[in-house]
Amino acid sequence: MPMPEGRWIDVEGLRTRYYEAGSGEPIVMVYGGNFGTSDSASSAYTWNLNMRPLSERFRVIVPDKVGQGYTDNPQNDDYTMRAVVRHLAAFLRAMELPPVHLVGHSRGGYACARLTLEQHDLVRSVTLVNSGTLSPGVGTNEVVLSRPPYPKYTPECVRWVYQSYSFDPRVVTDEWVKAVLEILALPKYQESVRKVEQEKLGVKLFLPELAREKRETLQWLNDGRLQRPSQVVWGFDDRTATLERGIELFRMIAQHERRAQFHVINQSGHFPFREHPARFNALLARFVAQC
Fold this sequence. Notes:
11 helices; 16% strand
C-alpha cells in the first residue's frame, strides 16, 4: 500500500515531513528506532500497511520524527529522546489538532508515553506497541541484532536486520527495504550517523539521557500519572522485547487505569502491525471507537 503524498510543516524551526489521510477522530502514529543508525532507518513508511485502511474511518497522521525520515536533524546536536518528545508535542500543536489518539511503536512508544505523561491536554488515548524502550527490564536488541553479516548501508544488511526482528522473514518486502535505503542515502541522515556513531553522541549523550529519563518515566507510570485510556499490543514472538516485559508494562498502567487493555498477537515479532496488519488495524479501530 503506497503512502499518500507527503506534506511539510515548520515545527519550531525544523522542516518536518508528515503524511495525512482520512477524516474524523485524529490518530497520530509514531514509529520506532532512532536517528543515526547505519544498519537500518525507520520512517513514516513503517505504517504503510495501516494508514490507508484506518483512514477509511479516521483522520490518520504519520509524522517523521526529528532526525528520522525526511525531517530535519536536531538543532544544536541535541540527539536526545527528550528532543524527540519535544518535537512530537510541538508538531501536534503546530497542526492545531484536538486531543489525539497516539499510537507508538518501540522507541516511538516511549515517546508517546512520555508526551502523555507531560502534556495530557494533547492526548485522548495512547496505544503502545512492543516498546522495549519503555517497558521495564533489559532489552536484547544488542544480542539479537549484533554483528550483521553484511556491510552497513546495503540491502542485504537492511533485510537481515528487519528479518531478525520478525517472526516470518517473508514480511520484509523489497518495497520496505527500498524505503529504508532511501532514508539511509540522504545526506542529512548520513550526517546524523556521523554524529551518533562516529562522534559517539549515541553512547555519550543519547543512551545516558534516555536511561535517566526512563527511570523517571516508569516511576510516573507507577504513580498513576498516565490518566488516559491505554492499550498495550505485543507480538508474542518478539526476541528483542519479550512478552514478559509487555505484561509488566501493562500491570504498571492497569493498576491505576481501569480503561487499560492488553492484546497479544501470535506468530509475530517486533512489528505486529506489519506481520498481521488486518488484525492490528481492527484492534486499533475498535479501541479508538470506544474512547
